[in-house]
Design brief:
single chain; 341 residues; 5-stranded mixed sheet; two-stranded antiparallel ribbon; 16 helices; 49% helix; globular; disordered N terminus
């Protein structure tokens, strides 16, 4: 039986994230190709800018880097972030009453350990900011370390209060304006470019109670950081609602924009406008879903390429071949060979 993607197709991660997270390992002289292979990521994919990897592959790479470098920021900073730092912050946080207490305690702990940037919580005129101010020149490895710290910190906050914290903006450095990556989609918030990295939200959410406990922490730590990668995306966003709707049609004709609008009780014009406001587009949502499902199917050697094409609703394998190459820069056969070699 072919694997079903009807309800489990997960969003994938751009290869650029992989290239950046191994920068510290390269600087330390480690064999990055071996690390990538142990994580199930073909090193050849680094040469294909459009390629993607699964969440499981990326999480496995994080584990490999953490283990080899003994560093929770993977060699990207001037000195290691000691192993156990994240767990210590989590234990502090679950003992707090409110989100504000947890954030202040956690960031205060990290300020004792970090030398290249300073994380702080600031509240002004009803807006709370978790900001990371650099204390050293920001090169590519440090910039990526700061973005990851901000993203994983956001995932931790969402877990502590057992809900997605709605953000007003995600802050990125001006130099990242030309290539913001997936940050706006991951945070479900508009990007703002300036001197700092972080995110902002309405200060009223600081009074949210911490609902996690020392008992629930054990299971959380066993799955982190993989559990933080995409768990708290906004399921109520229009883009995610459309993705779920289209997912149900994998293997058959995909609904058109007009069909989706009718199901959501919106005119095509309203649907397009709402998607633009979220920084999304109908065709991109559809293609991303098909791409992610195709990458999932290609990890199953028992499926032939024509079978995968059929599972995705393509009438011919050649059409699937062209589409996959446009999505990833590689032909599906080459992608599978590198993935399974």
């Amino acid at each position: 039986m072919p694997p079903s993607s009807s309800g489990t197709t997960r969003q994938t991660i751009p290869i650029g994230q992989v290239r950046q997270i191994v920068l510290g390992a390269r600087r330390s002289g480690l064999d990055c190709e071996a690390l990538l292979q142990r994580a199930g990521i073909p090193p050849e994919l680094l040469g294909s800018p459009l390629s993607r990897v699964s969440q499981a592959q990326y999480a496995a790479l994080i584990f490999q880097l953490r283990h080899r470098l003994r560093d929770e920021l993977w060699g990207l900073c001037s000195r290691p972030l000691p192993l156990g730092s994240f767990e210590a912050v989590c234990r502090l946080a679950v003992g707090c009453r409110t989100l504000e207490e947890a954030l202040r305690a956690g960031l205060r702990h990290y300020r004792l350990l970090l030398s290249d940037f300073t994380p702080r919580l600031q509240v002004r005129e009803g807006v709370a900011s978790m900001s990371l101010a650099p204390r050293a020149p920001v090169d590519e490895p440090l910039g990526y370390a700061m973005r990851c710290f901000g993203f994983l910190g956001y995932g931790l906050v969402c877990w502590l209060v057992a809900r997605r914290l709605p953000l007003l903006a995600v802050d990125l450095r001006c130099k990242e304006a030309d290539q913001p990556g997936d940050a706006p989609q991951l945070f479900q918030a508009p990007p703002h470019y300036g001197l700092r990295t972080g995110w902002r939200f309405e200060a009223r959410w600081l009074s949210l109670p911490i609902v996690q406990t020392p008992e629930s922490l054990a299971g959380f730590l066993a799955q982190a950081p993989a559990s933080l990668l995409l768990k708290y995306r906004d399921d109520s966003s229009l883009a995610e609602r459309i993705r779920r709707l289209l997912r149900r049609h994998l293997g058959g004709p995909m609904p058109s924009l007009e069909d989706v609008g009718a199901q959501l009780a919106m005119t095509p014009q309203t649907l397009r406008r709402r998607l633009r406001e979220e920084g999304a587009g109908f065709r991109a949502i559809r293609d991303d879903l098909l791409r992610d499902a195709a990458i999932d199917y290609l990890t199953h050697p028992g499926l032939t390429l024509p079978e995968i094409a059929g599972q995705l609703g393509f009438s011919e394998a050649s059409t699937f071949h062209r589409a996959f190459k446009s999505w990833t820069g590689l032909a599906p056969g080459a992608y599978r060979q590198e993935r399974l070699s």
